[in-house]
Amino acid sequence: xxxxxxxxxxxxxxxxxxxxxxxxxxxxxxxxxxxxxxxxxxxxxxxxxxxxxxxxxxxxxxxxxxxxxxxxxxxxxxxxxxxxxxxxxxxxxxxxxxxxxxxxxxxxxxxxxxxxxxxxxxxxxxxxxxxxxxxxxxxxxxxxxxxxxxxxxxxxxxxxxxxxxxxxxxx
Length: 171
Description:
four-stranded antiparallel beta sheet, 0% helix
């Protein structure tokens, strides 16, 4: 995990690097002075970045899965675990993250975008899934779309979902 100063975009400068063990950082979401970072088989790490030159680990959650994409919203981290599905983690106390629930369908969950009370998930084998998270302890699938391909990324703008769908391109 790198923090890079781009105040001069022609000469970016690394301010700091956080590295613990053999963590392969996959995704980051910044909320205030906290960085939420996922790493392959390293779970979720929460870093205090108020001093960009010295990020410090303040909390972590790891159940041994293959974490990748995440989004943090309203005191919850929505973490994709390729094999275990969507993990909903209470991060209201970032020093003590706690698993609230897991939503698991078949296949590999690799992307997430939260809109209101819905988690839109990207799954390599199942495509797009819509999951109601209004009760974070009991997530429920409410819809899906799949037309083949191998989706990897998702972005939502208004009422449209854009899916980077591997060899099928952008859908």
